[in-house]
Inverse folding.
């Protein structure tokens, strides 16, 4: 595949060569769907691009999209690119304050409002006077609609051109450690990373064939944007399905029957816990150990999840417990872990059939250079490398080494055959009262591997020893009012504490496990839109109780 063409050039070629091929399938309620061919997708984008051009925005104008994943997100992005603009996607779960910050910081000229669940709260974050357009499936708004504009507007003709160094998108990081930062990604970087992803997947799955994916992780995040949207825009052969809602997700998966499926650790864990809610882990483990029956049981479990046709499954965005990967592989799912960042457009490391080990994120993808600094920080120079942080020269100066490698802030170590293992975040390291550093991520992975635990956080800054807060699995929480169940859970957590401590160095051992009062969620601010834990928020919420827990003693506490 030639890399002389930019991503938009690939799209315009598909418009001609694959005009009648169905590209996007959008659920619209009641089990109904709308299929969009390549000709229809690009045709609608051309008409909207003409409308945007009529508004006389400056070249490179930032145009925002606030929407859950949907077919018209793809079309809106193409229209923005054809009109000479730069896309700014905002997470559909963000608060009004963050919506306003991103719109004002990016100096957005227009906002597309799409499929949303909390628009009533978010609407006050839209600056007065900012032009807005409502996408299909948007909540009720006073704005002009996509369909009305497309119906009355002629298409942009020919091949709209973008230059390699023009900005394709600003991706605002989800802000797990502070205010979101705008990552500048030019067309050259987006194209190189997308072409790299396509070539990598073709090396695994072969060319052509019936390739299906479901888009449900936030498109405002680089993981989904790169590996689903932009890779499919370059490739042209994939059929992308969308999810309708959380409560229809299983049916949406059954409709799509994806051949490639990517997710994040928390969702892989929730899928597993859903299986355990129907079949106890011990029973399933016994069945899987029986050679012929085990294969049949594994296929049945995967079919129930809608993943029986998956030929390659990936996990990214955060470290996943090695035991969880091993469990899916026992079912027959070829689950591998990868590693990437917004700053390299999610194109960095991945495992393969030959180079793969649970707990490792793989080896550098083609064109990626990686090394470890003296203190173990992962340094990367990648084809999709960003052009810097928007309006933040102070951060740009700190972000790169003298020879152009990006300082990821992640710590790692090299294992067998050069495989990379993530061992934590540099900034997440904390020091106990004994003056010794503790890396929380590996300990959290050990805790998260237990079927009773949904999420965990390890902390203990300045304390005599570290402690852990855990969120119990969804299947357990409703039964905690039963004293017998509560007592059983407490005993099991005590055993978990003992087992985990048995594998840790003395200075890393946990003093106690604390059960969180309520689940952590995006809505209550404890998780980022990409489902990473917000450490500072969770630690602040329990700060008044920590000294009491240490003074009281005991292995298990209830927040």
């Amino acid at each position: 595949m030639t890399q002389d063409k930019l991503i938009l050039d690939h799209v315009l070629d598909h418009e001609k060569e694959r005009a009648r091929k169905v590209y996007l399938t959008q659920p619209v309620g009641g089990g109904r769907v709308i299929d969009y061919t390549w000709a229809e997708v690009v045709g609608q984008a051309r008409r909207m691009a003409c409308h945007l051009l009529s508004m006389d925005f400056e070249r490179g104008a930032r145009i925002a999209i606030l929407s859950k994943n949907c077919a018209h997100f793809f079309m809106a992005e193409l229209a923005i690119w054809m009109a000479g603009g730069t896309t700014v996607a905002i997470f559909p779960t963000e608060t009004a304050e963050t919506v306003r910050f991103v719109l004002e910081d990016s100096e957005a000229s227009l906002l597309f409002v799409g499929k949303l669940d909390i628009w009533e709260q978010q609407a006050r974050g839209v600056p007065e006077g900012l032009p807005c357009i409502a996408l299909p499936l948007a909540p009720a708004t006073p704005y002009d609609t996509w369909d009305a504009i497309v119906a009355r507007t002629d298409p942009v003709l020919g091949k709209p051109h973008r230059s390699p160094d023009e900005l394709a998108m600003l991706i605002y990081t989800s802000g797990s450690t502070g205010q979101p930062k705008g990552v500048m990604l030019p067309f050259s970087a987006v194209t190189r990373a997308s072409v790299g992803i396509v070539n990598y997947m073709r090396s695994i799955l072969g060319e052509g064939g019936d390739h299906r994916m479901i888009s449900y992780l936030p498109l405002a995040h680089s993981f989904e944007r790169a590996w689903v949207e932009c890779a499919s825009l370059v490739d042209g052969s994939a059929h992308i399905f969308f999810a309708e809602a959380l409560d229809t997700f299983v049916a949406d998966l059954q409709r799509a029957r994806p051949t490639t499926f990517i997710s994040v650790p928390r969702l892989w864990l929730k899928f597993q816990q859903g299986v355990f809610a129907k079949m106890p882990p011990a029973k399933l483990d016994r069945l899987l150990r029986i050679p012929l029956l085990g294969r049949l049981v594994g296929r049945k479990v995967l079919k129930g999840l809608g993943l029986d046709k998956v030929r390659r499954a990936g996990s990214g965005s955060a470290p996943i417990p090695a035991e969880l990967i091993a469990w899916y592989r026992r079912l027959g799912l070829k689950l591998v872990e990868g590693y990437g960042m917004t700053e390299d457009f999610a194109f960095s490391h991945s495992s393969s059939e030959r180079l793969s080990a649970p707990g490792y994120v793989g080896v550098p993808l083609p064109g990626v250079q990686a090394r470890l600094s003296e203190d173990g920080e992962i340094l990367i120079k990648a084809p999709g490398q960003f052009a810097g942080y928007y309006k933040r020269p102070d951060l740009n100066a700190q972000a790169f080494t003298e020879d152009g490698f990006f300082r990821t802030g992640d710590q790692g170590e090299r294992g067998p055959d050069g495989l990379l293992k993530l061992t934590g975040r540099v900034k997440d390291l904390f020091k106990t009262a004994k003056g010794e550093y503790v890396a929380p991520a590996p300990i959290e992975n050990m805790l998260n591997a237990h079927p009773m635990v949904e999420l965990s956080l390890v902390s203990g800054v300045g304390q005599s020893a570290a402690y852990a807060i855990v969120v119990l699995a969804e299947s357990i929480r409703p039964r905690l009012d039963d004293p017998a169940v509560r007592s059983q859970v407490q005993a099991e957590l005590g055993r978990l504490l003992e087992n985990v401590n048995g594998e840790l160095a003395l200075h890393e051992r946990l003093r106690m496990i604390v059960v969180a009062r309520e689940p952590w969620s995006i809505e209550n601010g404890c998780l980022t839109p990409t489902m990473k834990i917000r450490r500072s928020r969770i630690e602040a919420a329990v700060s008044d109780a920590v000294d009491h827990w240490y003074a009281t003693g005991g292995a298990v506490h209830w927040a």
